[in-house]
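Ligand: magnesium ion. Inputs:
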Amino acid sequence: MHNAMNSRTAALLSAFSAHATKDDAGTINAPPSASFGSLSLPWQSIAASLDGDASASLAAYAQGKRKIGKEVANRIADCVMRWALKNGATHYAHWFHPLTGVPAEKHDAFLARGIQSSHVAIEQLPGSLFLQSEPDASSFPSGGLRSTHEARGYTVWDPTSPIFIRAEGGTRTLCIPAAYVSWRGHALDFKTPLLRALDAVSREVSAFVNTVTGTKTCTGVIATLGTEQEYFVIDKTFVALRPDVVASGRTLLGAPSHKGQQLEDHYFGPIPPRIQCFISDVEQELFRLGVPVKTRHCEVAPAQFETAPVFEEVNAACDHNALTMDVLRRVAERHGLACLLHEKPFAGINGSGKHNNWSLATLEGENLLEPGAQPQQNLRFLATLAAVLHAMAVHNDVIRSTIASSGNEHRLGANEAPPAIMSVYLGSALDALVRAVADGKVHTVEELADLTVTAKLSARRELTDRNRTTPFAFTGNKFEFRAVGSSANCAWPMTVLNAAVADSCRVLRLRIEKKGGAREKATLDVIQEVFQQTSRVCFEGNNYSEEWLKEAARRGLSNHTTTPAALDVLGKPDAVAFIVELGILTGDEIHARHEVFAEKYVKELQLEASCLTELATGYVAPAVQSHIARLGAAAAAANQSGVKSKKFAEEMEALVRRYDSLGAAVVALERTRAEVGHDARAIADRLRPAMNAVRAEADALEQLVADDVWPLPKYREMLLCGV
Ligand code: ADP
Ligand code: MG
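Predicted complex:
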């Protein structure tokens, strides 16, 4: 039996023999501009192909100024359909973001009966169906927003995110980005509150800026977002043999690979040919979809990579990130690979995040977080900075709650990702300025001299250094919200962050107005107060250190290391009142999200625990039994030969003890699983440790048992072979 090739070895050989699908020298990709946006249709392009009146109506609609009439809707829909047909689409779908976190779509053919004869088919997309569609809402999570018998929900075209055509499996489908609400008008998705938050930003931030500058020149503000998406890629064949990866997107057990990330040789290393082929295909597809994907590189862990786009307006950027994740998964399949977007696919090496680079810009195109050469004199910048610090201080717990998930729990607080304490890093130059303003001192930020590299080479220096241990960093002219998880729909953290900043802008504007007197003096006074009051959220040191945990506790900052604890704040009306007051979500809608997120956590952990039990009993235990049998036979043979050996007995002892411990840990896990039921807190506090206990035994056994009887692909194989 031991000589026959087992499925794991077969998978290994298959992964090893897989190679790049294109030969490097012969392939020349078209430049991005050749295909960029060929399968994408922003409203501006639709408007450009309509006549004057219809075009103006659409522009007014997209800018939220006017509703759209039936006749214009028909013409828009017809124009969109003709574009889709020209590009080979046969079907259309509203593409929306229910609270599952996975984009949803229901396809319909552009099919109508002929006017002359019902046996004749024609293509048609009526305006009413284009603007709005009615998927059955009953099977999406609603968090109690509707009862099971109230199934009606509507998806509504969002003109501010470009329409696109998905080309997959030999068919092309027109995808229409949409918001999703219940028959009673409750937001059932991630997009609706985001759009409302962005309206609040435009309203409140521009009013704030005009108050600060004493002008009326700011006519609106947009938030901008660039997402750095981290992901793992492994050979797909391995996944077939890992029920844990199939079920939960991560490995629930597995001993460390000898070669992990300790040599630090993967980060920014040469991209392996097979992966390069995959990434190039992803990029070409994203270019066609109008996603401005720009950066690619190898990340810290083996088999880990990153992609980042050029930033866009937040709503489009969120949709484009969801699309990027979708394309990564689909293209990986075609390449015989699996793209793992989970925050922690492999224990012991880095997990994956999604840094949300965020800023605010006026409609006139000016970045409000651009400090300029002399930030100390840039009142608008200082005021905007004060508003962000105020938001992080006042809405700290709510912002923390938006990144809570079972996957991200493995990162936050572990030594590789920012801790679960929400603090802000400003960098030494800006930090010094903020402290000086707080103390009422005059302070000038000095421009840094160029660095001398060699006699001939010099480098320009930024104002600030970087700090990769912080969850929220100022990086030159934007903030980087680094604590978001790789699998997240970033619309939710973006909704709350933008809402928090809009709220703070409102609060600070009222404070400035209340002070009265000279505008500049009143503004500076408020900025000074805010810098004093928010110093507790500013931290420049090493966020991974023990000292910071103690210091943060002294400062009264929360450190919620589990998802249910972090989500609790959503149940506190005072804490979430700003979201309600800004018209972003009602109390019921927030309560619903609390329910849905907590429920998701419960289900994911219950699923993982049951899968782990199966792995332990159905895979690990039988492998140990085979090894025990083999060892027993060998010991008997040795015994028969008359040569005494202590080693056999020692090995047997160690193996059987571990086997027993594994069995006991599994029994404890199953008992705990039954006891905790659907109690999220108990799951976090008791089920997770019970799972860790099983894992510890299984991983130790992996290192004791003969390689040829181990059924599960090992870490060293998945991480280093075939990618
Ligand atoms: P890093 O050096 O931090 O890894 P990357 O180049 O990988 O940076 O990503 C930085 C991201 O920040 C990009 O997506 C970039 O477009 C985005 N970005 C730059 N300026 C802004 C801005 N004003 N608003 C939002 N995002 C921005
Ligand atoms: Mg980066």
